[in-house]
Amino acid sequence: MSFPPQRLNAPDPATYNARQQEIHNEIASGPRGGVRGPLAVWLHRPDLAAKAQDLGKYCRYDTTLDPVLSELAIMVTGKVFGSEYEWQIHKGHALKAGLGADVIEAIRVGQTPAFPNREQEMVYKVALAAHTERRLGDALYAEAREVLGDLRLVDLVGMIGYYTLISLTINIFDIPPMGDAPERDLPDDKA
Questions:
Q1: Hey, where are the domains in the chain?
Q2: What is the value of pTM for the model shown?
Q3: Helices and strands counted in the chain (H then E)
Q4: What secondary structure letter does DSSP report for 62?
Q5: CA dihedral 173, 177, 183, 186 (to 10 degrees)
Q6: Which fold has domain 67-172?
Q7: Residue 4: exposed, middle, or buried by beta-carbon count in 10 A (0-12, 13-18, 19+)?
Q8: What is the pLDDT averaged over residues 6-23?
Q9: Is the per-residue pLDDT at 186 higher than 60?
Q10: Do 83 and 167 meet the contact criterion of CB atoms below 8 Å apart?
């Protein structure tokens, strides 16, 4: 399947101003090891890129959530937004963190996965409700507090918000998957 052309390419490094170069170097020297996708597009506004990169670094590497729970929330967000680039980048991270291939596939095809524990089930429920209902009902909120605790719930909501920003950037600027992607990894329904 072909993808539409990217609407806004990253700035050309040969034309970077001093602030763009500074932020580019900061991102590239960090744990991401490069500047790609939404972060590259954000370099048009280097202060946005810097602040988003800081938030992203926290959400990705420094929260109270185990990596498997973080990646689960990212996968749900990528699926809800139909963000192929995000799905492509994080599928491998999710598998490496220990998220089951069966769970990932169920999310991809729009089915409710069978989770190995309550924590994963709760992260899925919270992430899905946050995107589809834009809130948590009282019963789900109480259950999330019981299973995850307040600190992890705060981090989860922050992570969902950050990856919503990522997904919107990907979708609005038509950032395509990396490399050769002959077919979509997400169904076209973008559920």
A1: 15-62, 67-172
A2: 0.87
A3: 8, 0
A4: I
A5: -70
A6: AhpD-like (1.20.1290)
A7: exposed
A8: 90
A9: no
A10: yes
